[in-house]
């Protein structure tokens, strides 16, 4: 059932992320629904499930964009593992914490993608002010999207009889 | 007597008509509401008709332009307007490898150059727009005849459109133009044909402004793209030059 819920959340996240418009003022960042799903699994599920969710979310995100496949997965897995390790020290059940983590991860994922693009000479023409604008946009969108996805995912899992890690 | 009878009849007739009208007021209101709905529906149809007419006009222009061209092109619809993450300025077309489209093919409209194909799948193709910072093309100033390399400058964040989905491009730049050359504002900029990707003579845009660069040794031209990049609907991909 966990796998079915994960696939459903990924597909919905991918669909919403691709349908949502981007604005120039936010560096054309999209609302990071897939990152929020990966964040939910990093905080609320065992480490192995979190890694699978991070890889899946990254692959879907990269396949919807022109980014080389694997870039987003690497970012999500690294941040997911870090969060899975430190989640006992965080108030992971608080929507406020989730919102802050969503904002932080939104900005850091954008920075991570930029660094990987730069290493492969794919971001030579992108000025850093544009990256900073994208980081700000991603942070703002992550702040709004992460608690929403958290609430939806937790509600769905409770509805089908699954309890997330802090309740076990 | 007859006059009196006529007057009474007229009076009774008016009373009858008035009472009938009052009695039918419910029907009149219903009829009015029905007519309002019909007017709204017809206005909607008219608006949709305007859209169809506009699309028809654009397609006719595209077809006429296609017939004038000496090289082979494939007409495509624009089905998406970003790269999915906002790193590059791209559009996605509804035709791909199966329709003869390949990487590096030029993309244009009757107004001017749009970009080049950077990725192709079986039935879709991604196009890097001339407004993207990584886009470069060798150009020629039509009147002056001098050459330069035009580079995209990204999108503009000024004005209300900063909040919109359809972002306006910042004018592209042509750097390292000799100081003694007299390039005037309004002059047409076309592709030079150097580099082998773009055929010579495709309209790129018009010079909006000329200024000295930071070193003071060369001029820089700001070129406004001729193609209406934020509102692209149909484009032509040059498949054979």
Topology:
The complex is a heterodimer of chains A (168) and B (241).
Chain A (H helix, E strand, L loop, with lengths): L1 H18 L13 H12 L2 H18 L6 H16 L8 H25 L8 H32 L9
Helix pairs in contact in A: 1-2, 1-3, 2-3, 2-4, 2-5, 2-6, 3-4, 4-5, 5-6
Chain B lengths: L1 H22 L1 H44 L3 E9 L9 E4 L12 E3 L4 E8 L4 E5 L6 E6 L5 E5 L20 E7 L9 E4 L11 E10 L5 E8 L8 E7 L1
Antiparallel strand pairs in B: 1-2, 1-12, 2-5, 3-4, 3-12, 4-5, 6-7, 6-9, 7-8, 8-11, 9-10, 10-11
What do you see in this structure?
The complex is a heterodimer of chains A (168) and B (241). Chain A has 168 residues and is mainly alpha-helical. Helix content of chain A is 72%, strand content 0%. Chain A has one domain (2-163): Arp2/3 complex 21 kDa subunit ARPC3 (Orthogonal Bundle), CATH 1.10.1760. In chain A, helix 2 (33-44) crosses helix 5 (95-119) and helix 5 (95-119) packs across helix 6 (128-159). Chain B folds into two domains: 2-63; 69-240, Thrombin, subunit H (Beta Barrel). The termini of chain B are far apart. The interface between A and B is medium-sized, with 25 and 24 residues.
Give average pLDDT of chain B, whole number: 83
Shape verdict of chain B: elongated
**Uncertain parts of chain A:** none
Overall radius of gyration of chain B: 30 Å
Q: Let me know the CATH homologous superfamily of the largest domain in chain B.
A: Rod shape-determining protein MreC, domain 1
Instruction: State the helicity of chain B in percent bands.
Output: 25-40%
Q: Low-confidence parts of chain B, pLDDT < 50 over ≥5 residues? A: none
**Total individual domains of chain B:** 2
Trace the largest sheet of chain B across and list its strands: 1-2-5-4-3-12
Might you state the CATH topology name of the largest domain in chain B? Thrombin, subunit H
Quaternary organisation of the protein chains: heterodimer
Q: In whole angstroms, how far apart are the ends of chain B?
A: 100 Å
Secondary-structure content class of chain A: mainly alpha
């Amino acid at each position: 059932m966990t796998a079915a819920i994960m696939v459903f959340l990924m597909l919905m996240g991918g669909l919403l992320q691709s349908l949502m418009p981007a604005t120039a003022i936010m560096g054309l960042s999209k609302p990071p629904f897939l990152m929020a799903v990966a964040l939910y699994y990093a905080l609320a599920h065992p480490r192995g499930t979190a890694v699978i969710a991070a890889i899946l979310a990254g692959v879907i995100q990269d396949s919807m964009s022109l980014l080389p496949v694997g870039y987003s997965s690497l970012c999500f897995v690294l941040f997911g593992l870090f969060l899975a390790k430190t989640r006992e020290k965080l108030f992971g059940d608080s929507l406020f914490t989730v919102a802050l983590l969503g904002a932080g991860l939104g900005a850091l994922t954008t920075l991570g993608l930029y660094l990987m693009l730069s290493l492969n000479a794919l971001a030579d023409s992108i000025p850093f002010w544009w990256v900073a604008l994208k980081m700000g946009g991603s942070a703002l969108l992550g702040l709004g999207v992460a608690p929403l996805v958290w609430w939806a995912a937790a509600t769905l899992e409770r509805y089908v009889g699954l309890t997330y890690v802090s309740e076990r | 007597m007859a006059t009196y009878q006529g007057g009474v009849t007229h009076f009774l007739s008016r009373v009858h008509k008035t009472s009938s009208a009052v009695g039918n007021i419910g029907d009149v209101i219903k009829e009015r509401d029905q007519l309002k709905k019909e007017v709204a529906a017809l206005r909607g149809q008219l608006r949709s008709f305007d859209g169809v007419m506009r699309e028809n006009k654009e397609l006719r222009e595209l077809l006429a332009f296609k017939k004038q061209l000496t090289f082979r092109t494939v007409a495509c619809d624009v089905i998406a307007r970003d790269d999915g993450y906002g790193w590059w300025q791209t559009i996605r077309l509804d035709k791909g490898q199966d329709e003869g489209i390949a990487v590096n093919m030029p993309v244009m409209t009757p107004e001017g150059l749009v970009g080049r194909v950077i990725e192709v799948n079986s039935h879709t193709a991604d196009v890097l727009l001339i407004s993207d910072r990584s886009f470069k093309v060798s150009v020629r100033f039509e009147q002056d005849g001098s050459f330069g390399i035009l580079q995209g400058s990204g999108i503009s964040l000024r004005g209300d459109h900063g909040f919109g989905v359809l972002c306006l491009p910042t004018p592209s730049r042509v750097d390292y133009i000799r100081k003694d050359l007299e390039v005037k504002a309004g002059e047409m900029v076309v592709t030079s044909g150097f580099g082998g990707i773009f055929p010579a003579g495709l309209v790129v845009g018009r010079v909006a402004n000329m200024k000295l660069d930071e070193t003071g040794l060369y001029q820089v031209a700001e070129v406004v793209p001729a193609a209406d990049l934020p509102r692209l609907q149909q484009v032509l991909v040059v498949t054979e030059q």
